[in-house]
Amino acid sequence: MPAVRGDGMRGLAVFISDIRNCKSKEAEIKRINKELANIRSKFKGDKTLDGYQKKKYVCKLLFIFLLGHDIDFGHMEAVNLLSSNKYSEKQIGYLFISVLVNTNSELIKLIIQSIKNDLASRNPIHVNLALQCIANIGSREMAEAFGNDIPKLLVSGDTMDVVKQSAALCLLRLFRTSQEIIPGGEWTSRIIHLLNDQHMGVVTAATSLIDALVKKNPEEYKGCVSLAVSRLSRIVTASYTDLQDYTYYFVPAPWLSVKLLRLLQNYTPPAEDPDGWLIFSEANLLVRACNQLGQFLSNRETNLRYLALESMCHLATSEFSHEAVKKHQEVVILSMKMEKDVSVRQQAVDLLYAMCDKSNAEEIVQEMLNYLETADYSIRGGDGIKSRYSCEKYATDYTWYVDVILNLIRIAGDYVSEEVWYRVIQIVINRDEVQGYAAKTVFEALQAPACHENMVKVGGYILGEFGNLIAGDQRSSPAVQFQLLHSKYHLCSPMTRALLLSTYIKFINLFPEIRTQVQDVFKQDSNLRSADAELQQRASEYLQLSIIASSDVLATVLEEMPAFPERESSILAVLKKKKPGRVPENDIKENKSPTPVTNHNNEVNNTSIGSADLLGLSTPPTSHPNSGNTGVLLDVLGDIYNKPNDSTNNTWFVDPKKSTLLWSDEQAIKLSVQMKPVEPVLEAGAQIQQMINAECVDDYTDCPSIVVSFHFTNGPQKITIKLPLTINKFFEPTEMNGESFFARWKNLGSTNQQRSQKIFKASTPMDLQAARTKIMGFGMQLLDGIDPNPDNFVCAGIIHMRTQQVGCLLRLEPNKNAQVSPSYVIFGVFRMMRELKMYRLTVRSSKESVSAELCDLLSEQF
C-alpha cells in the first residue's frame, strides 16, 4: 500500500488502525462491512467527490481486498482515476486495475484507451505507470492492443532510458503471452543494438528480452553474439568508477554478466563440433582469459580452483588458447596429485586430457599413470580411459603405446574395460614392427606374482599369435611360455580359461615340441569333465584336432590372424563428441565396439560385450547374430559366453517408484536422503546410475537401507542394501595446532556427556601405519606432530548438520606393552599364538551421542 504521509488520506490510516485493533474475526468483518456500506453510499449518492476522495476510497477497497474479502464495486471510480494528471491518483488507479480488474471485464476497453493516452504522453512517469500496468495484466488483449506501440517506444531515440527499460520488460511479458507480438525485419537489428546502449539498466532489461527471442528464433537474432561478447568484455575490463552504481562486492555488473553468458549459451554448437563452442575468435582475449584463470589455480578457495580448471578445459579446445593452457601444465599436474577435494582432482585429470597433444602426450600420460596407482575409486576409471586414449591419439611410436596400455592394465585392471585390451590386440596385429616387442613385453608382465586377469587375456592372445618371435631366447622358450600362461589358468574366470585353451592349441601349431604337454592339459578332468560346457567342448575338440589333424591342416586352421580393417576406436569417437572434460562411463559402455565371435558352423556373430550396474547389480550381456565381421577381436572357435539365452528375457524393468528407503523413526527425522528417478527400462548390456543426495539433519546412530525392486526373467525381484551413510560421512577435516587442540580437548572433557572412551584389543598385530590409514579414511584431519607421544594419533573435524555444526576431537593411544592374554588358534595338531596389543580410543565432542557413535564406528575398524 502507498505510504500515508502527513495528514494525507487520514481516513485510510484510521481505518487500517481500526482493523488492526479488532479483537476477533467477527469484529473485523463487522468493521469492514460498515466501511463498505459507507464507500458504496459515497460512490452512489455523492456526485461531488474529487480525485483525492476517490483515491482514498479506492485505497480502502484495495486494502479490504488484500485482507481476503471480495470487492464487487469501485472499478469505474478506479478507471476514472487513470485520467487524472496527479501521479498519486493515477498510481492508485493503475494499482487497483492491475490487482482487481478481470481481463474479461467490460471496462477493459476503457482501460486500454486510458493506457494508450498515457503511452502517448510526454510525461515519462505516466508512460512508466502505463507500461507497468500492461505488464502486470499481461493478457492477450493487452498484447494485441499495444503490440505496435511498445516496440516503437523501445527503439525510439527520443525515449528516455528509464522508459526503455520498462518497455523492454513489458515487451518480454507480452511476448511470453503472445509470441507474435514482436515484429521482424528491421526491428530485429534495432532490438539487438540495445546491447550497445549506454544505460546499464536498458542493457540488462534488453538482454532478458533478446534471450527469450533467441530461444524462439536463434538464426534471426544471431547478430547478438558479437555485441554480447563485446559488452561482456567491456564489463570485465571496466574499472570501479565506470560501473560504480552496478558494482556488487567489487564485481562489476554481475547480474548482467550472467544474463549475457546465458544468452551466449543459446548458440553453443552441437556435440559433433566440440571446437565451435567459442563463438568468437579474439586470440588475445582468449589468452588473457587463460592467464587469468591460471592465477586462480593456486587460489585458497576450492570452488574457484574447480571453476578455473573447468573453464580451462574449454579454452584448451581452441587453437588460439591451447598453447596458453599448456603453460599451466605443471600446476595442473600438482592439482591432480595434491588437491584434497576429489572433484577438483577429477577436473585436473580432465584438463590434462584436454591439453594433451603430440608435444606433451608422453609426459602427461606418464603422470596420469603414476597418479593412477593411488587415485580414488571414482577417478580410476575415467583417468585410465583418458590415459589410454591420449596415448593412442598422439602415439608416434607404438612400442610406447603397448607399454602404456600394459602398464594401465597392471595398475588399474579392475577399471579397464574390455574395449581396452581388444584395441591393443588390434593395434599389435595390424603392425608388424611392434609384434615382437609386444610379445616380449607381455611375457615379462605375466611374470609378476599378482597379475590381473585382463593382462592374462592380452598375454594369452598375443603369445598365441606371436610367441614364436621370442621363442629363440631360452628364457622365453615355448615350454616356458606355456608353463607361465598355465600357471594363471586356474585363477581365471571360465571365459579367460576358454581363451587360454585357444592359445594352447595355437602353441601346438607354433611349437610342435610341446604338443604332449598341451595335450595333457586338454585331457585333465577339470577340462574334459568341466561343469562349464564351453570349457568341456573346447578341451575335447582341441584335443581331437591335435591328434587327428596333420601338420598342414593344423597350419591352415590355426594360421595367424589377418589384419583388422583400420577403424577409429569407438571410445575415442565418443570422446570427440563430448564436451571437454569427463566422459560418462555410461556413454563408453553403451558405445563399445562389437566383438565378433565364430561359432562351430563358422558363422560370424557380432557381440557387444558390456556390463550394467545398478547399485551393484549386473545384467547379462546379449548378442545379435549375423551382424557381420566389424568388430575388433576374433577369437578362435567362438565364445558362447556372449550368446543369448533364447528362453531368458535379458531386460530389466525398473520401477523408479519402488527404489525406496527403509527408515526407522529416528532416521526419517535426522537424515534427509533424496534420490533422482531412474529410467524404467534397463536394457541388456546397459547400466543405470542412481544419484543419491544425503543431508545430515541431526546426529543419528544407524544408517538406512535401500530396497531395489525390479523385474527380471519375467519375475519380480527385490534386493535390500545398506547405504554407507554413517555419521562420519559428514565430517569436514579441520587443521589445528597443538595449543588449540589441547585447550579444546580439555574444555570438551569437562563433563562425561561430551566424552566417550573405549579400550579394546587390536584384532590384528599392532601396525601403526595401518592404523594411520584407517584414521585418515575416517574423514577427520590427522594432526601430525601434535601429541608428545609419536605413536599416538590425534584428529580434529567438524560434523556438518542442517541444525548445527558439531566439533569433534579424537585421540587414539596404542599400548604396545599391554599385558594381554595370548589367543590360541588350533589347526590340526599345531597351536599358533597371535600377539595382541591394546588401543585406547577417546572421542570428545559437544554432543554425547556423537562421541559414543564415532568411538564405536572407529573401534570397529581395528
From TrEMBL:
Residues 29-272, 281-546 form the Clathrin/coatomer adaptor adaptin-like N-terminal domain. Pfam families: Adaptin_N, Alpha_adaptin_C. Residues 593-610 have a biased composition (Polar residues). Belongs to the adaptor complexes large subunit family. Adaptor protein complex 2 (AP-2) is a heterotetramer composed of two large adaptins (alpha-type and beta-type subunits), a medium adaptin (mu-type subunit) and a small adaptin (sigma-type subunit). Residues 730-858 form the Clathrin adaptor alpha-adaptin appendage C-terminal subdomain domain. Keywords: Coated pit, Endocytosis, Membrane, Protein transport, Transport. It is found in: Endomembrane system; Membrane, Coated pit. Residues 582-592 have a biased composition (Basic and acidic residues). Residues 582-612 are annotated as: Disordered. It comes from Molorchus minor. It is a peripheral membrane protein. Adaptins are components of the adapter complexes which link clathrin to receptors in coated vesicles. This is AP-2 complex subunit alpha. InterPro entries: Adaptor_Complx_Large_Subunit, AP2_complex_asu, ARM-like, ARM-type_fold, Clathrin/coatomer_adapt-like_N, Clathrin_a-adaptin_app_sub_C, Clathrin_app_Ig-like_sf, Coatomer/calthrin_app_sub_C.
